[in-house]
């Protein structure tokens, strides 16, 4: 214990002597957590819509007014031909074309049916899917209104129908920030802990101080623990800052127990710090460590379920995500903060994370070469 105490004293002195690390630990996560949820917005609005109206009837105007009044669409063109509408799409001035055929109102009244044509610019797949879905939903509502006007009251009231009533659990108002902020917090804790630990041992190698440590009777596991514990404590500080920012800026208050969050975050930090230290034992320069850690961070983020659900990934990606510690952290953060899950609910993720921590730190100790 005395050896570890001296090593911890040395590490904390080095950390607090370096102002860049302190800024990285405190200022960077705060700014990122304020800005990133505002940029990572799942709500698609101001979709540019071009209308090709061949009918110019009252129903056509009513449909156009209903679409533009929804708040999702911005009318950028009112054209007389489909060719003119396509020119707006080709010039990137329109995302969708709604073509209203000739005799639109007459066919609705006389034949009780009429087809509309929607052309979607699918270069941006997410915007295309959501824009098409929004427009389809508005047209269905418009169709329901027209049916209530055209059908006789007795016939309309007597027709069988199914009405759905939905209830949004855990996020009643469907606010994307409540979904994104916990995941972004997990990523920031991973980045700070992973990069700092990955650069730590390598920095000792570059400065030559590792040789002075190697000639001492310090054991390998003492050395790794001395590197691990300070950044584990700082990682919990970053996690606390993230919880405070999410509460003060976005009004997110964890539904579950904070002890559950901190306990899992502590085990997760042991795993991700062990991974960083393992990388550090393989590298000889800080540049090597940064590139390797950046490579894995990209995989952790894109295959962690932050932006896209893991269930929608291919089977091989689902298998790889089981070896991604960040995916467990993101899942548990959302479970505890939004759903109020307890220790019993997160036991599978906790057991997996504890196994990650044990394997990665043991591997780091074994791989650290101590030469006298």
What would you say this structure looks like, in words?
67% of the residues lie in helices and 6% in strands. It is elongated, with a radius of gyration of 29 Å. The chain folds into two domains: 2-40 and 172-367, no CATH class; 47-158, abc type-2 transporter like domain (abc type-2 transporter like fold). It has helices at residues 2-17, 19-39, 58-68, 82-90, 104-111, 125-150, 153-158, 176-207, 209-214, 220-250, 258-282, 286-302, 315-321, 325-339, 347-367; strands spanning 47-53, 73-79, 96-100, 117-120. It is of the alpha/beta class and 372 residues long. Strand 1 (47-53), helix 3 (58-68) and strand 2 (73-79) form a beta-alpha-beta unit. GO terms for molecular function: ABC-type transporter activity.
Put the structure in a nutshell.
This protein has 372 residues and is α/β, with parallel strands linked by helices. The chain contains 15 helices and 4 strands.
List the helices and strands and how they pair.
Blueprint: H1 2-17, H2 19-39, E1 47-53, H3 58-68, E2 73-79, H4 82-90, E3 96-100, H5 104-111, E4 117-120, H6 125-150, H7 153-158, H8 176-207, H9 209-214, H10 220-250, H11 258-282, H12 286-302, H13 315-321, H14 325-339, H15 347-367
Parallel strand pairs: 1-2, 1-3
Antiparallel strand pairs: 3-4
């Amino acid at each position: 214990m005395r050896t570890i105490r001296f090593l911890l004293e040395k590490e904390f002195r080095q950390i607090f002597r370096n102002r860049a690390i302190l800024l990285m630990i405190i200022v960077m996560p705060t700014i990122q957590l304020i800005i990133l949820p505002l940029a990572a917005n799942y709500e698609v609005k101001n979709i540019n819509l071009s209308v090709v109206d061949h009918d110019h009837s009252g129903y056509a105007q009513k449909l156009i007014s209903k679409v533009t009044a929804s708040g999702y669409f911005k009318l950028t063109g009112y054209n007389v031909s489909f060719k003119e509408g396509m020119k707006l799409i080709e010039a990137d001035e329109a995302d969708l074309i709604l073509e209203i055929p000739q005799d639109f109102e007459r066919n609705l009244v006389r034949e009780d049916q009429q087809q509309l044509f929607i052309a979607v610019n699918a270069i941006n797949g997410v915007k295309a899917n959501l824009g098409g879905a929004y427009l389809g939903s508005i047209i269905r509502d418009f169709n329901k209104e027209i049916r209530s006007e055209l059908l006789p009251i007795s016939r309309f009231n007597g027709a069988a129908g199914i009405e759905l009533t939905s209830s949004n659990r855990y996020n009643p108002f469907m606010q994307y920030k409540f979904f994104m902020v916990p995941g972004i917090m997990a990523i920031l804790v991973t980045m700070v802990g992973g990069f700092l630990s990955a650069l730590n041992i390598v920095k000792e190698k570059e400065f030559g101080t590792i040789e002075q440590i190697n000639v001492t009777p310090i054991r390998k596991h003492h050395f790794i623990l001395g590197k691990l514990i300070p950044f584990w404590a700082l990682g919990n500080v970053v996690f606390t800052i993230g919880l405070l920012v999410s509460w003060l800026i976005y009004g997110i208050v964890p539904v579950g127990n904070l002890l559950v969050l901190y306990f899992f975050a502590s085990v997760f930090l042991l795993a991700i710090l062990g991974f960083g230290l393992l990388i550090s034992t393989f590298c000889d320069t800080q540049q090597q460590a940064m590139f390797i850690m950046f490579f894995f961070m990209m995989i952790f983020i894109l295959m962690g379920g932050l932006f896209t659900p893991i269930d929608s990934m291919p089977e091989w990606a689902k298998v790889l995500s089981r070896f991604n510690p960040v995916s467990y952290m993101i899942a548990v953060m959302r479970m505890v903060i939004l759903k109020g899950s307890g220790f019993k609910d997160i036991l599978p993720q906790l057991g997996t994370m504890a196994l990650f921590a044990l394997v990665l730190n043991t591997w780091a100790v074994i791989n650290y070469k101590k030469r006298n």
